[in-house]
Prior knowledge:
By secondary structure, this protein is an alpha+beta fold. The protein has one domain (2-139). Helices cover 45% and strands 28% of the residues. It is built from six helices and six strands; from the N terminus they run αβααββββαβαα. The chain has helices spanning 2-7, 13-16, 18-24, 81-84, 95-110, 112-139, and strands at 10-12, 26-29, 38-46, 55-62, 65-76, 86-89. Strands 1, 2, 3, 4, 5 and 6 form a six-stranded antiparallel beta sheet that branches. Strand 3 (38-46) and strand 4 form a beta hairpin. It is elongated and about 65 Å long. Residues 3-4, 46, 48, 51, 53, 55 line the site of zinc ion.
Amino acid sequence: MDCCLIYMPMQFFHDHFPDISRDETKTIPITAVPGMPAIALFEYYCTELACGCQSGKLGVVSIAKPKTVLASVSFSLTAHIDSSVDIEFTSPMMDREKKKISQALLRALRDKRYQNLLAEHRLLLRARIFDLVTEPMRKNTVLYH
Ligand SMILES: [Zn+2]
């Protein structure tokens, strides 16, 4: 994962696929936390095309206040996704609330269907980045007869 730390090529899935993002961004009810009925998980992926790290990040926001990022979650879409999950809280919160959110995030990331959705979104985004990167080359290609 060193490549990501150096170049930070993480890109926001929503910027490239707003419609899919609107339909498929995961939301989780957090009923145990007053004032925070649900959280949404915004997806970011490593888009360094030469990199095979399978890294992603989730920006955790409260649906009530989507502009405030509560936490960021790093993960790698590998068989051992659990050992790669790193949750960092970026907004002040009670320990009890952090615990509830952490539990919900881990439960979500252990779900195979959600992992498959994330893997699909990662591939879509990387294909889009590949197109954007190679488009100028395709346009400038001179065909010799
Ligand atoms: Zn990477």
